[in-house]
Structures
1.
Amino acid sequence: MVLAALGILLVAIAILMIVTPSLGQQGVTVAGGSFSMSQIMVAFVTGVTTGGLSCLAVQGGLLASSLAHQIEQDYLQNPPQGKKTKASVQPKRSNSALPILLFLTSKMVMYTLLGALFGWAGSFLTFSPVTRAVLMIAIAIFMLGNGLRMLNVHPIFRYFAIEPPKFITRYIRRTAKNGTELFTPLFLGALTVFIPCGVTQAMLATALGTGSALAGAALLFAFTLGTSPVFFIVAYLTTELGARLEKFFMRFVAAVVLVLGLVTLNGALNLLGSPLSFENLTRGLIPSTGNSSALAESAPSSSTGGITLQVRSDGYFPQMLKAPAGQKVTLSLVTNQTYSCARDFVIPDLDYYQLLPETGTVTVDIPAQPAGTKMFFTCSMGMYTGQIIFE
Amino acid sequence: MVKKTYSVPDMHCSNCSMRLESIEDDLPGIREINASYHKQQMIVEFDEAKVSEEQILAAVKKKGYQAIPA
């Protein structure tokens, strides 16, 4: 009963995180890196939707092995009587809840630590928005390559999959066979770090991109937490996913990984100030009333040549600013209880990068620009964007 | 002791190689199995006096794969 309650608790945490939209607006900036709660949410939802089954496909065998001992014990303690062989063993499977929970807890702790390690390692790489963009492009290529691998597009993409060294897989397998008591699931759960599934690898790559140990840990914790309910339920019911279902499911996972890859690539393009990013290509095409009214509000005051941008937790307003060409312009960045990564303000063309205060005003002097210039700005994650048009 | 190479075209992730390698614990007479997802193949080193090729192929099939002698 207690174990079932724990399982329900995991699901409850999952639902709570999904239905609390205000969390999505919060964000944290830590030790040079930044991440937003929405990114954590994405990690969590990815865990719930694809990570659980994808990880189960890779690590399910280990879990099954760690359960083998428990099932054997149940069998010895309650030997089947008469003809009811299967039926009499089946209800005793409830005892397997504890090993599954131990396995998942151990896995969650290890991946959180691994996330912290990746985030920490990433902190040495994130020197500038450009470095970050380059890293994001590498991550995107890794994700897209893995997505295409899962779809079996070309044999070359198989090299995007990381094969753990033989001595590690052999050691894991032997431990699973010979292990005893509750230590086995704990130990095997910890060993799953050596055989991460494709989606987990993508998450680790994202953790690297955050450039912060705390962000990396939070990201992987959210992801592993997300995978846990699915892992628990499926493992509890079957302990192994059928090969046919696994192959079908791979396509779904591939699609999600491809989308994550494209989103990451798009973020990198934003960070480079490229006009080819999705937002920069479509901003002019979709006229919205919100934008146009905001545009009017921020019309430059000709006397000062100053323009104002509201930096809010949910992005930059207006997204399109107009500024006079051929003269110096002062851009005022106004924050008011802004907590998301929108605070990490970047103008790629000017090589300008500034962490804005949570509340306050920061001014940027923009040198005179020729008419027709489009200057893009973005947050350091390439999530929130906008542009200044000089005319 | 002989060493034979098989192509396993339906391996779809690195875990498949781990699954195939676990056959070395199941069948006595197999010294070592080296499966590679990248190459879509497995190399089996076994003692023909203790285990037959048919038994190996059957074990592979039981795991959900098809091994074709290369």
2.
Amino acid sequence: MRRAWIVFGVVLLAGVAARAQSSPPVDQAEQVRVLLERIQQLERRVTELEARQTPQAGAISAANEPSPQLRAQQAAQAAAATGPGQAPHQHDVQEQQTATVQQMETHFPSLQIRGFGDVDFSATDQKGTTSGFNLGQLDLHLASALSHKVSYFGEITFNAQPTGYTVEVERNIIRYDYNDYFKLSFGRYHTPIGYWNTAFHHGAWLQTTISRPEMVRFGGTFIPVHFVGFLAEGNIPSGGAGLSYNVGVGNGRGSIISRPGDAGDNNDNRAWVANIYSRPQRFYGLQLGASVYRDKITLAGGDLREWITAAHLVWTKETPEFLAEFANVNHRAVLTNLSTNSQAFYVQLAYRLPWFERSVKPYYRFEYTHTPLSEKVFTNQDLIGSILGARYDISSYAAFKAEYRYTKHQIAEPYVNGVFFQTAFTF
Amino acid sequence: MNALTKRIAAVLIALISLVTIVQNGSSAQTARGGADIAVVVHPDTPVSDLTLSDVRKVLLGERQYWNAKLPVVLLIRAPVARERDVVLRVIYQMSEAQFKQYWVAKIFRAEAASPPKIVYSNDMQYELVAGIPGAIAFMDARNVRPGLKVLRVDGYLPGDREYPLR
């Protein structure tokens, strides 16, 4: 543990040093502001000159009834435009405008690639574990508009293993947009149950904390993290309630319970998921929602019906940031009708401090998972734990995080203390 | 939950309350001023009046279509321009860093295929709004030229006392 604190000190010093080097000088921003003002002055001057040479008609669209102030301004422009000028440069101006528009219009396909990565250090007092560094996931995200209405999204991760690296296709989605109310996609998703699973994906830089909550851990089994099938999504006309939905049908859990059956379903039953959430207009930053997921799981011991219900409440602004999520997983054996209920929840609170150029965000998370001993689908996942940490944004695209964790997995086991450090970035 | 966890949570809540009080005090003193920022769209866009919440939905990428045939093309001035400052402060209510992170996350979540287009001058902005169907931009009301449609926001136009974008 002592070594871990030394590492923390080194990481912190490196962060401070790097920040000192990367912070742009204040006068540079001032210079840019002055130059932009100069551009605006020149533009006004060009506009005046053009107005003298080019007779212009009309004012701001007739759809509006301009305010008196704006009307006076337009009248002045119109008066300037009535001068006896010709239009020798009109053709050139139009050509230039067309070129600018063509340059800025979206061309298809328009592939964008973004990467995410993280490097971690961990040390705990749990017997049998070793401290040390490890490479997190190297994550590549692809987004490409194929037309105004068709888009492709992909996510591929490279994962460090003792004998090398494994490559995983995390998401692979093609989406057809009809309008804001109906978008239909096919492929492999992160299952839209709750909030975290579809908010942060594999980008550690996007999430405040170092790790995901246990209930949505990658490789975990509490909820099916991935989903292969199709999904309809969109907004629901609901006024100020700001409702949206996701409804999907897919393969459900595979033979390996943590995987979604990429190469085919392991039974003749499709899983379905429905998620509805609200972003009320009056409370910008608030999101609350509920999800249900239904599947039939085929195991060696027989079939079980799975019924997951989940709810979330989040406040996404960072002063404060609040995330809370709850899920209940019900498994009912088809033959015996015996059922079990497992619950998990987490509550996370963070706050971006107003000092240090708003680069520091302390956070706390409490999480809890309970699985009954009679649970048949997954092994015991009991957990009670707290995480206290801080995130320091070294730039707009990189962050350092430091965490202290105090967790206990089984009733008979002691609490484990641990310190964790991470640098996460996007590129 | 054991005693240590409760104590940590209590300290954290107290710290957050203190910071909120300090921050609210300082933000209340922030002065507002400057010319109105007009919301301008391509003349064929089938809207003429939006609420501030509607404008926010468009800017957040939650509304991506004016109608089934006409996608929204979002144009935003480059950093340091006053128009961008007003849009970030009043509509997004985000810092520059939060704004960048928001759009990285938005695309990463497969909720949008591309971020807003960045424009570097009013001339460029004017050319793009006039030339691209579905385009929407934010410009100093003094620089609005004929040929663009200026939208009412919450029923007000730039110059009105109650106009919210300034």
3.
Amino acid sequence: MAEHYSSFERGGRRWLLQRLTAVFLIGVLAFHFLLLHFANHAADITFAGTQARMSQVGYFATMWLFLVTATFHGVNGVYNALVNQGIEGTQKTAVKWVLVVASLLLVAQGTRVALAMNGFL
Amino acid sequence: MSQSYNRGTVEDFGRWREFSAGMWAWIFHKFTGWVLVGYLFTHIAVLSTSLGGAELYTNTLQGLEALLVVRFLEVGLLAVAVFHILNGVRLLMVDLGVGLEAQDKSFYASMVLTGAITVASIPTFLGGPLA
């Protein structure tokens, strides 16, 4: 058996959430690429087409969950990479809060964008 | 049964010639992760043009898509995303303890498959009207 290497504290909540979001993102990221680059060519995208997709409740919910899970997975991954590089103490706390604020701003802005796309805003 | 290898730390990039497949997988996963999270913020910034009205959104997206460099960047983004997905599946398998003895082979398979999917996608990405 190989030794167990992980960037996370074993059994931690962030470890589990990183894996659970990964499973969701594998499917949704592939769907997103296929739909907007292969089924519909990106060059042909118009606001009307985007609005038609975002007006479907299931599509809107999937895309909003995509935003939230991708933000968590990405920002948690960045935090993890920086911890691997050896940041600690005040630096670690500062990085954590900068990333938390950046995530909240991204989700807030992404939500505004989603609501503009479905015609609510 | 249990065997340990002292390969040093993967963060010590200066000794990259000594890195094993698993260490390269770790580095590529981090690199592609940084690119994807950077793209996520950029993507939301570009899509924010929807807040400025339908015309601004459509013109911005179609204007970007008319640039050849954007098409090539999209191919690069696909390569990065496909590798991150495939290696992510590999990592989930490693975490579950499935196929540990073949973890180096599955890394090479991820690389080959990423290359094949990327090359196959080029006609789709470069097709369509350009400026």
